[in-house]
UniProtKB/TrEMBL annotation:
The chain crosses the membrane at residues 61-81. The lineage of its organism: Eukaryota, Viridiplantae, Streptophyta, Embryophyta, Tracheophyta. Belongs to the methyltransferase superfamily. One of its GO terms (biological process) is methylation. It is found in: Endomembrane system; Membrane. GO terms for molecular function: methyltransferase activity. This is S-adenosyl-L-methionine-dependent methyltransferases superfamily. It comes from the Eukaryota.
Length: 457
C-alpha cells in the first residue's frame, strides 16, 4: 500500500553542554506513489517551527487511530471510576458512614478554631477600644455611667458636614481598667450635691482615665474670701478659707510653705517673704533667665503662652505684668494649686501631662517648661510629649526650658539629641550645677535653654 513506503522515526537527542535539553522530532513522510505525489506532513517540536502540507491517506488513517485511542481511554476511565469491589457492594453503608463521620469531625474542628479566633479578636478589640466596649451589664455599675456611655442617635440622621450619625461620650480609654473607681465616681444623687471626691477624680486622671465623664450634680461651693481685684491679686496672700483642703495632708498655706513639694515648689505659696517675689526678675545663678531678657528674644511677638507644670502660677503672674496671657497647667498633687492660681486672677488648667494638649496647632507664642517636662518612663514617652509641645507652638515662637534637672549625663545627652531633632535655633543654652534645696549633698546638674521654632515647609 501507499503506507508501506512511509517512514516514522523518533529520535531523542541530548546535548552534552546542556543535560536538561531534550529534542524530539516526529516526522511523518509519505513517499511518492506510483501514479503521483500524494503529499507529506512534517512536524518538528523543539526548534519553534511547524510546517504542514496536504494530508495523505496515511495521515487520515493515523487520525482514525488516534480517535479510537481516545474513545478507548475514556471507556477504561469510566469503568475505573464506577467499579466497586464485590465485598463492598454487599455492605457499602458502614464505610460511607465512617467517611461522613470523619469529614464531619474535621469540619467541626475547623469551626471551633474559627470561633476561638473570633473570640480572641473580639477581646483584642475590647482592649484597644477601651471604654467603648465597657461591659455595661456588669453588676454594681452606676446607672449614671451607663446612661452617659450610651450612644445617642442624631434626631435628623446623618450630619452632612461631619458625617457622624450618633453622639458618643468622650471618656478616656483607660477608664475600662478602673471601672470600679469610675462607677464610684459616677454614684451620686442626680440634681443633688456632688460628693467631695476631687481626690478620686484626680486618681482616675493619673491612671489615664481622662477625660472623665460629665456628672449631673452640683459641685461643692467654696466662698472665696478676701479676693483682690486684678492686678493687685497677683501678689496678695490667698486666704486658707478660699480653697478646699479635703484629701490633703496640710490644711493651711503656712503648712505647705514649710515643705518641699517639688523641685520647683519650695515655699512657692509665700507671696510676701519667699523667693517667689524674686523669681524670673532676679537671678540666683547662671541657669536662671530673666523674663525681660527672654521677651526681648521674641522681638516683641510674645502675646500668649503656655506654662507646663507651673506650680503656684508665678511665671504667669510675671507675664501678666507684661501684658502676656499665660495658661498654667498643673494638678493638685499635695496642694491646692489650681485654686491658688485662680485666686491670683490667673488661668489654671487641670490636666495631666499624658493628655494631648487641648489646643489647636501653632497658637502659642511661648511655651515654658521646667522639671515638669520630665514625664518619666521610656524615651518614647518624652518624644510624644515634645512633639505635642512643638505642635501647639507657632513658627518663630520660643520654647523656654527652665532649670530642667538632669539626673545623669546620659539623660542630658538624650534630651539634647531629642531637642536637636526638631531643628530649633539655640538662642540661649546653659548647663550648670546647683546645690540642693537643703544646701547639702552633691551638686545637681540643670539645663536651661531658650529655643526658637523654625519655619518648616
Amino acid at each position: 500500500s501507499i503506507c508501506s513506503t512511509s517512514r516514522i522515526s523518533l529520535s531523542l537527542l541530548s546535548s552534552s553542554q546542556d543535560p536538561i535539553f531534550v529534542h524530539f522530532t516526529l516526522q511523518l513522510k509519505a513517499e511518492k506513489a506510483a501514479n503521483g505525489e500524494m503529499g507529506s506532513v512534517s512536524l518538528k517540536i523543539g526548534d519553534g517551527t511547524a510546517r504542514f502540507k496536504r494530508a495523505t491517506l496515511c495521515s487520515s488513517a493515523v487520525n482514525i487511530l488516534m480517535l479510537f485511542s481516545v474513545i478507548t481511554t475514556n471507556v477504561f476511565a469510566l469503568y475505573a471510576f464506577t467499579y466497586s469491589p464485590k465485598h463492598l457492594q454487599n455492605n457499602p453503608l458502614p464505610y460511607s458512614h465512617k467517611n461522613v463521620s470523619l469529614i464531619s469531625e474535621q469540619v467541626s474542628l475547623i469551626l471551633r478554631e474559627i470561633d476561638s479566633s473570633q473570640r480572641k479578636l473580639a477581646q483584642m478589640e475590647k482592649e484597644l477600644l477601651g471604654y467603648d466596649t465597657l461591659d455595661l451589664s456588669r453588676p454594681n455599675l452606676a446607672s449614671e455611667l451607663k446612661l452617659f456611655l450610651e450612644h445617642h442617635q442624631l434626631p435628623l440622621g446623618k450630619d452632612s458636614r461631619t458625617g457622624i450619625t450618633e453622639m458618643v461620650a468622650s471618656v478616656g480609654h483607660s477608664c475600662e481598667k478602673s471601672a470600679d473607681l469610675l462607677s464610684q465616681y459616677m454614684s451620686y444623687k442626680v440634681s443633688g450635691p456632688c460628693p467631695d471626691d476631687w481626690s478620686l477624680a484626680q486618681k482616675l486622671v493619673l491612671r489615664g482615665c481622662e477625660p472623665l465623664p460629665r456628672r449631673r450634680c452640683f459641685g461643692k461651693s467654696v466662698p472665696k474670701v478676701g479676693l483682690s481685684s486684678f492686678p493687685a491679686s497677683l501678689w496678695k496672700p490667698v486666704s486658707d478659707k478660699s480653697v478646699t483642703w479635703s484629701g490633703l495632708g496640710c490644711k493651711s498655706f503656712e503648712c505647705l510653705n514649710g515643705k518641699k513639694l517639688t523641685r520647683d515648689c519650695v515655699g512657692c505659696f509665700d507671696l510676701v517673704n519667699g523667693y517667689e517675689t524674686q523669681k524670673y526678675v532676679k537671678a540666683r545663678g547662671k541657669n536662671d533667665f530673666l523674663i525681660d531678657d527672654v521677651l526681648a528674644m521674641g522681638s516683641g511677638g510674645i502675646r500668649i503662652g503656655f506654662d507646663i507644670g507651673g506650680g503656684s502660677g508665678t511665671f504667669a503672674a510675671r507675664m501678666a505684668e507684661r501684658n502676656v496671657t499665660v495658661i498654667t497647667n498643673t494638678l493638685n498633687i499635695d496642694a491646692p494649686y489650681n485654686e491658688f492660681i485662680a485666686a491670683r486672677g490667673l488661668f489654671p488648667l487641670f490636666l495631666s501631662l499624658d493628655h494631648r494638649f487641648p489646643f489647636y496647632d501653632n497658637v502659642f507664642d511661648l511655651v515654658h517648661a521646667s522639671s515638669g517636662l520630665d514625664v518619666g518612663g521610656k524615651p518614647e514617652k518624652l518624644e510624644f510629649f515634645m512633639f505635642d509641645v512643638d505642635r501647639i507652638l507657632r513658627a518663630g515662637g520660643l520654647f523656654w526650658l527652665d532649670n530642667f534637672y538632669c539626673a545623669n549625663d546620659e539623660k542630658k545627652r538624650s534630651l539634647t539629641r531629642l531637642i536637636e531633632r526638631f531643628g530649633y535655633k539655640k538662642l540661649k543654652w546653659v548647663v550648670g550645677e546647683k546645690g540642693d534645696a537643703a544646701g547639702a549633698g552633691k551638686p545637681e546638674v540643670y539645663l536651661s535653654a531658650v529655643l526658637q521654632k523654625p519655619v518648616r515647609v
